[in-house]
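Budget justification, computational time. The allocation requested in the original proposal was used primarily to generate structure tokens for proteins on the priority list. As evidence of use, we reproduce two of the resulting records. The first is shown immediately below.
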Amino acid sequence: MPAVWWEGDRCLKLRSMTNTRPLRAAVYHRVSTLDQNAALARDELRAAAARLGAELVLDIEETGSGARNDRPGLQRLMDAARRGKLDAVLVWKLDRFGRSALDVLANIRDLDAAGVRFISTTQGIDIRPGGDAMSRLILGVLASVAEFERDLIRERTRLGMAKARESGKRVGRPRVERPDHAAVAHLRAEGKSWREVAEALGCTAWAARAAA
């Protein structure tokens, strides 16, 4: 018999005729320097997992800038999701899960592809894998916000480049001199990768290849 979702705030478990394991949940919270009491979010997330009747397999809280999307705890959570170790991820707010709408959307889509449910406890957001109507609506709104954000970034970049040109600054990647052929050949003979050759000679991997 296929797996069945039992819905409700009081209990949510994935069951089948041969598998009665509880929902495997992870809670994630990025602590902001503006947080007055991180324990409030911590307790709320754990209580939300308990209301789902879930087994808490990951409880991650880390202090880090929202400007970074490569935080160790977040990467550990995403890796567990991709390896099929999680059924649900709970966060306190969307802005604690990614540095921008673009990153939040990318992270949620990765969870969706891995069959992992995403819940933001304080914002009433519940995105289920498989794409029910409400989940599709929320993802659509996030995608629209992300596209708006992307357009703003493009516009700011264009204006910044125009201003730089007006002030006489060179725009674009700096010109890289082609490295010496003998130096490239010597490093390659030592078994160095193209990336290692480029780092040793202070050029791009493309320039190193061109000089070979």
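The second record produced under the same allocation is shown here.
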Amino acid sequence: MNEAIDDRPDRYLRNSLWYQICGEDFLAKAFEYAHQADPTAILFYNDYNSENPSKREKIYRLLKSLLDAKVPINGIGLQGHWKLNDPTPDQIRAALDRYSSLGLKIQITELDVTIRNGRAIPDTLTPMKKDSGYTDNAAQLQADRYRSLFKIFRAYKNVITGVTFWNVSDRYSWLDSRNGGLAGGAAAGQSSPAVARKAYPLLFDQNLHRKKAYWSVVGF
């Protein structure tokens, strides 16, 4: 089950077609049917912004309700689409503590750390242009961020069973074609022209060379 919780603080579940057609029962049935199809499969609920306190508590509510109903769920995936300064280390630790209290396996999924901190814009199909935005300072900040994240992951190695990245290198990233791929101009509410800017979120650069971020993850 993926991304069933609504982002808005005053809403619980997304008003998806599954919800409209089946009601809240579709959540439990997804796990039950998957378990029937393969009793050995490890079944996860996966979502983003799962460290945000408001959404965290709604996700916790969902997980606990499934467990209380004896639904076959084994773990939760925390999508790590993170920035250099968000979420905070304390927010990540609080989320890990909260979810692990349920006895579920935890995985960090879809991990990438964008160097962009500008405002997001509506999705665009316009390909992002390559630029020179990955400065030495940005590389170091990203490396420091990855180091701090994996320090947390290792501290919780008794409950985290895996970490998965959202692609391999900066050559291709979902962030380069949507949600914040432009800086300046309309993206920032300014009169200056909008400029395409890559996110450079992964451990390998566009030529598949190891970045500082790579060494900060493997060197500990």
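A brief technical remark on that second record: Confidence is low (pLDDT under 50) at residues 119-128, 182-192.
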